[in-house]
Amino acid sequence: MDNRNPPPINENIRKSMRSNKGKGTKPELIVRSMLRELGHPGYRLNWNKAPGHPDIAYPGRKIAIFINGCFWHHCPRCNLPMPKSHYDFWKTKMERNVQRDECKNKELIEGGWTVVTIWECELKNNRDAVVERLINVLEPTPSTLFP
């Protein structure tokens, strides 16, 4: 199977795709700002000693936070359509991304980590719920520690 990217349909699409970043994205910056506002600095970025290199990690507490783009990680909430051009390439790529995410989450959980996945759409549509989830993970109450 050929893993190379298919040729772009036009130069504008090429420029758009090349401008996508893997680190330091706007959603990541928003979550990092939330964490500092909540009084939880001291995280590690893209910590390579944890499986999957979480976007944000608290190694001592074994908390891994992934901030997923809805397109690239095939958000189950948004259910975005596949691109019409080079459909087979994109379908295969998205399936591999989803499988990789599931494997790294499973590996982290088996290693005793708490995994939090925040979707790009959540930051746009329901920031309060994201803040609440972060608080629940970072500031557990005795009732959540000992059910």
List the helices and strands and how they pair.
Blueprint: H1 11-18, H2 26-37, E1 44-45, E2 56-58, E3 63-68, H3 87-110, E4 114-119, H4 120-125, H5 127-138, H6 142-145
Parallel strand pairs: 3-4
Antiparallel strand pairs: 1-2, 2-3
The overall pLDDT average reads 85
> Span from first to last CA?
49 Å
Specify the CATH architecture. Answer: 3-Layer(aba) Sandwich
What structural class do you assign from the helix and strand content?
alpha+beta
What is the helical fraction, as a range of percent?
40-55%
Task: Describe, in short, the structure shown.
This protein has helices at residues 11-18, 26-37, 87-110, 120-125, 127-138, 142-145, and strands at residues 44-45, 56-58, 63-68, 114-119.
Description of the structure:
This protein has 147 residues and is α+β, with helices and mostly antiparallel strands. The chain has a single domain, classed as Endonuclease, Chain A. Helices cover 45% and strands 12% of the residues.
What labels describe this entry?
Endonuclease, Chain A, single chain, alpha+beta
